[in-house]
Design a protein that fits this description.
Blueprint (H helix, E strand, L loop, with lengths): L2 E6 L3 H16 L6 E7 L23 H7 L2 E4 L1 E6 L4 E5 L5 E5 L2 E4 L3 E3 L16 H14 L10 E5 L3 H18 L6 E6 L13 H11 L1 E5 L3 E5 L2 E4 L4 E3 L2 E4 L3 E3 L16 E2 L12 E3 L4 E2 L13 H20 L12 E5 L5 E5 L4 E5 H15 L7 H7 L9
Parallel strand pairs: 1-2, 1-7, 2-3, 7-18, 9-10, 9-15, 10-11, 17-19
Antiparallel strand pairs: 4-5, 5-6, 8-16, 12-13, 13-14, 20-21, 21-22
Amino acid sequence: MNQKIVIAGTGFAGVWAALAARRAITLAGKADEIDVLVVSPAPRLVIRPRLYEAVLENMDPDVGALLAAVGAEHLAGWIETIDWDAQRLTVSLPGGGTQNIVYDRFVLATGSQLYRPDIPGIDLVHDTDQFDTAIRLDRHIAALKDQPASPARDTIVVAGGGLTGFEAATEMPIRLRAAWGEDAAFRVILVDTADKPGASMGDEAQPYLAEALQYGGIETRTGVRVMSIDPDGVTLSSGERIETHMVVWTAGMRANPLAAQLPGEHDPLGRIVGDPYLRAPHAPGVFVTGDAVRAATDDIGNVAAMSCQHALSLGRVAGHNAAADLLGEPLHRYSQPKYVTCIDLGEWGALYTEGWDRQVRLTRDEAKAVKQEINRIWIYPPAADRDAVFAVANPDYVIVP
């Protein structure tokens, strides 16, 4: 009976884990002896970094042919339980019922999900976290056009001043004009707990972020948080009430709950603290990757962010190492010392920085061109050509501008 590597998830990390695992197995001449099975609801890779955009076409490309081209299988389903001691998974199937799968190596690549705090009305918010919720937001924007003009209809609140919040807020005027007409009147208000929106981008970026907000006509409420939400508005911790029929929630991420089923240390985001080879230290045979792992990117204390930039490399390393572990070959240590950030700022352009200290390198149109290349080309899955895929599926392959 063949040995089996099971990979949970078809996000950036999961897809590249499968490709890297099949590459290592094939190069070792064991393609007929070790199977790679990928489990997810559908063989699609959602391009989450683009879900803030106005046009959602081709945001969930099918990767079924790609996986088949390298010899990996896909099973439609949801992993419900991980019995790491018995090396067995329980999978819920779309048509009902469950299936048990025994694995020799397991790669947890189920990513992350939006954090929703326990506040009144949190179920009323919209988000750009997943493809279906992004579509729901798009439909809500279109539906608002048919409502009578009012302060609530014409005001959009974006909660969270991180990178996702900035992109959602600065893109919103473009989305509203596209849906409501070029002469539409509206307010977009960005609410952030920090004293300055985008504080995580550092001091050097602040003038550019402020300029982009002003250019887009984005209002801000800083040093406050949303305390409650109702169908007609939000109440802030300052006591201010803002009338609105749409709140876009972008305030933080947490690892997929499956990570909690693995033993060992977890960070405040719910991620497993992995070893340098992305193994789960207290679950033999289990590798963790993407947004499910807390992994050091270098030797000076930096840790991988919940981003596709890191997930692409984390996936390659985890998949390669799961295969190498079965093959008895040396494991590859995860390292990704170069860090860049490219944040879309709507009509103003974009902002491109390098390093963990966020040194500004490009702004406006120059940065926008880089952002569009990243969003539309670099992060998309490759064509279903096995040899071409294997050429870029090695664990030390890194794409950076």
